[in-house]
Amino acid sequence: MRDWVTNVVDTFYIIGTVAGPHPYPMMVRDFQAVIGRECLEQMPELCGRQPDAVLACVGGGSNAMGIFHAYVPHENVRLIGVEAGGLGLASGHHAASLCAGRPGVLHGNRTYLLQDAHGQIVETHSISAGLDYPGVGPEHAWLKDCGRAEYVAVTDDEALAAFHDCCHYEGIIPALESAHALAHAARIAPTMGRDKILLVNLSGRGDKDIHTVAERSGITL
Questions:
Q1: What DSSP designation does 77 have?
Q2: Is residue 14 over pLDDT 90?
Q3: For position 27, what pLDDT does the model report?
Q4: What is the pLDDT of residues 121-138, one digit of tens each?
Q5: What is the CA radius of gyration of the chain?
Q6: Which of 63, 75, 76 is CA-nearest to residue 36?
Q7: DSSP strand E in the chain: where?
Q8: What confidence tens digit (pLDDT) does each residue in 37-48 have?
Q9: Distance (Å, rounded) from C-alpha 43 to C-alpha 197?
Q10: Looking at the whole model, is its pTM more than 0.85?
């Protein structure tokens, strides 16, 4: 990032999430938006209608923005982003920028950040490396501020339990990032009617997380 801002004439910076300076948040969102457009078509075919809520994990926020974007005009569909609550928001060991951060500037964009009283970025923590980021894409900040999307936090332990449940009941090994969204879906499902539909975006495979899960679960591979 420092090299790019120093040599903007002949250096191009490519980031894989919806953060950073314009046009990167827009570019990555538009690439990822295929997810949401496909869901808009496929949900009526599979379920007869659109879901009552769409859930996705949020680190930098690319997978969530990808599935949220097409649903923004559909006001009857709740958009729920799930951040890494780590050891709990009160512990200070988490990566929940939207739930516990405040506005600031990082990597060329103004958004919600985890920072100290002097505006310095603080250390983050998550069982999931993919969610371990001290900021979030600026469009998520806008969705939070305008009230179109809601953001919650899930702890390491809750995500780990959801990881095991998904493996056990569905035969799918989810990424630990995605397990955060699954955990919140399991949290809110009992409060909803049986006719309600939740759409959870599984943003990746958990093969890469097996050693982390084994260590946290006391399993020797």
A1: S
A2: no
A3: 94
A4: 999 999 999 999 999 999
A5: 17
A6: 63
A7: 53-57, 78-86, 102-106, 109-113, 149-155, 198-200
A8: 999 999 999 999
A9: 10
A10: yes
Strands 109-113 and 102-106: antiparallel
Tokens standing for residue 190: 């009992």
- Tokens for 83? 């951040």
| CA 63 – CA 34 distance, rounded (Å) | 10
**CA-CA distance, 70 to 175, in Å (whole number)?**
23
Task: Give me the torsion for CA of 180, 152, 66, 147, rounded to 10°.
Answer: 170
**Strand, helix or coil at 121?**
strand
Per this entry, what is the length of the chain?
221
CA distances from 31 to 27, 79, 93, 143 (A): 6, 19, 32, 19
Cβ atoms of 126 and 156 closer than 8 Å: yes
Q: What is the pLDDT of residue 74?
A: 98
Q: Return d(Cα 214, Cα 12) in angstroms, integer.
A: 39
Distance of CA 36 to the CA centre of its chain: 14
**CA distance linking residue 15 with residue 18, whole number of Å:** 8
pLDDT exceeds cutoff 90 at 107:
no
Q: What local confidence, expressed as pLDDT, does residue 6 receive?
A: 87
